[in-house]
């Protein structure tokens, strides 16, 4: 009788790849987790229970066939595991690194619910795809037949690039327009290298270019080219701009020097990693080196900011969040990593204003909070504790309060582009079709600020809708 390769969660415990010690990793921007070795990947994949109703798969936005590629990994069929994982996911090497698995697949693993510790799905996914790149299994797109139809994609983030990949596989002519100098969107300039090293993004960009995707960079729609000009050049257009307008705090002292936006801070840091000249970093305006840093916010962007500040050499880093640890939106895994690296979290704290000295910020005026009755979302609303205010000393304050959409109809002089009351583009569920003929929208510009994996899902769904518009069946698109 053949030996059972799976269901070993009772005999084998959960084990993550080795995490570099905090004192070592806080000095650089390299990823903090080591790679699984082959035997360790097989061992951890073999813990999967192969359950009849795979909650890991149903809670993955891409519905990745996780149990099957875990079984293939456990039995040494790694190339097949890669082929299966990339069949539903355009960027498995990215999702394996930055998806919040604790809130998605791993957080819904059946053996986790039974007390045995979840399968390390993200780490195995990363191992499968990194091995595929190393072995040369990842090849440029080579369509079976070139088509005459053309699609213009505005935005080179994960949603736009996922759509570009699928469309090119069907032989569609694809041009991606982006206002930045490098493709990748927030994967390139928003997410720090210790979570996603930039060569991972760049090699995927290079692969897309080698497969025939045309990139037009440093191109701002509404400035360098009009939206209508793009529509005139292509048979369909996808809006995949993301949301980049930072939410702000209107309170005393908010204009003081040293009160900065999270995206400006993270972009400057990432650009320096490329060796770019960044004036505001070099003159200290967007550098945390030697400063007492306070980050306001509790989401994943706030976690990126506090951990970046540590690596830049801040003398102290504190994070203010108006609710408690249990109610914060950011990844608990990221909070733990930040605490290990020296970040101090001040829970139930909210800013009231900013103190300054000669126009430069010197501290944050803080209000202590408590949790009151639940709000409309069911979360307890923070309430101010009167008379408990104090000042938290700071030389650099980073506002990580989330993002909102830019006013695209105004920026692009296209009032017919319908938006919601939140400013996001109105688009049809799954297809991404807007009220404008041949115009689609995907990712954060439709959803609001969300996860990379959801943008990939939207891009793939939209690409399939466009292929159907061009009367191309799914079977052709998947070749």
From TrEMBL:
UniProt keyword annotation of Iron-sulfur present: yes
InterPro entries per record: DPD_II, FAD/NAD-bd_sf, FAD/NAD-binding_dom, GltD-like, Helical_ferredxn
MF annotations from Gene Ontology: 4 iron, 4 sulfur cluster binding; metal ion binding; oxidoreductase activity
UniProt keyword list: 4Fe-4S, Iron, Iron-sulfur, Metal-binding, Oxidoreductase
Gene3D superfamilies in the record: Alpha-helical ferredoxin (1.10.1060.10), FAD/NAD(P)-binding domain (3.50.50.60)
Keyword Nucleus part of the UniProt annotation: no
Start and end residues of each FAD/NAD(P)-binding domain: 151-459
Dihydroprymidine dehydrogenase domain segment(s): 26-136
Domain of life: Bacteria
NCBIfam families on file: gltD_gamma_fam (TIGR01318)
Protein name according to UniProt: NAD(P)-dependent oxidoreductase
Naturally occurring in which organism (per UniProt): Antarcticimicrobium sediminis
């Amino acid at each position: 009788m053949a030996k059972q390769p799976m269901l070993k969660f009772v005999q084998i415990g959960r084990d993550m790849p080795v995490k570099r010690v905090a004192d070592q990793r806080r000095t650089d921007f390299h990823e903090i987790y080591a790679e699984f070795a082959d035997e360790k990947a097989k061992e951890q994949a073999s813990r999967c229970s192969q359950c009849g109703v795979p909650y890991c798969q149903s809670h993955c936005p891409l519905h990745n066939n996780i149990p099957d590629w875990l079984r293939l990994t456990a039995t040494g069929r790694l190339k097949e595991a890669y082929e299966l994982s990339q069949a539903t996911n355009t960027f498995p090497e990215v999702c394996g690194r930055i998806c919040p698995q604790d809130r998605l697949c791993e957080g819904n693993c059946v053996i986790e619910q039974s007390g045995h510790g979840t399968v390390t799905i993200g780490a195995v996914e990363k191992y499968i795809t990194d091995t595929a790149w190393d072995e040369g299994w990842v090849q440029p797109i080579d369509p079976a037949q070139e088509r005459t139809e053309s699609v213009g994609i505005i935005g080179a983030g994960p949603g736009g690039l996922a759509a570009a990949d699928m469309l090119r596989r069907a032989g569609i002519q694809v041009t991606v327009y982006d206002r930045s100098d490098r493709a990748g969107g927030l994967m390139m300039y928003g997410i720090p290298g210790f979570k996603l090293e930039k060569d991972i993004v760049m090699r995927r960009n290079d692969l897309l270019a080698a497969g025939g995707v045309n990139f037009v960079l440093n191109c701002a729609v509404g400035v360098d080219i009009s939206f209508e000009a793009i529509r005139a050049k292509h048979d369909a257009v996808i809006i995949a701009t993301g949301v980049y307008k930072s939410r702000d705090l209107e309170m005393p002292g908010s204009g003081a020097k040293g009160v900065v936006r999270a995206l400006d801070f993270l972009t400057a840091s990432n650009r320096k990693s490329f060796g770019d000249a960044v004036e505001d970093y070099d003159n200290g305006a967007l550098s945390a080196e030697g400063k007492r840093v306070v980050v306001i916010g509790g989401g994943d962007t706030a976690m990126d900011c506090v951990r970046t500040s540590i690596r830049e050499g801040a003398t102290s880093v504190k994070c203010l969040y108006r609710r408690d640890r249990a109610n914060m939106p950011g990844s608990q895994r990221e909070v733990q990593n930040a605490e290990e690296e020296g970040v101090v979290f001040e829970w139930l704290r909210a800013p009231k204003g900013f103190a300054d000295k000669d126009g430069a910020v010197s501290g944050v005026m803080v209000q202590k909070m408590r949790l009151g009755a639940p709000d409309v979302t069911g979360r307890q609303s923070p309430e101010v504790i009167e008379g408990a205010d104090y000042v938290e000393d700071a030389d650099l304050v980073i506002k990580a309060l989330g993002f909102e959409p830019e006013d695209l109809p105004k920026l692009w002089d296209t009032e017919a582009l319908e938006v919601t009351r939140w400013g996001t583009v109105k688009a049809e569920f799954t297809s991404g079709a807007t009220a404008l003929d041949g115009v689609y929208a995907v990712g954060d510009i439709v959803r609001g600020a969300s996860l990379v994996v959801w943008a990939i899902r939207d891009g793939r769904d939209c690409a399939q809708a466009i292929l159907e518009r061009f009367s191309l069946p799914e079977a052709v698109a998947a070749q």
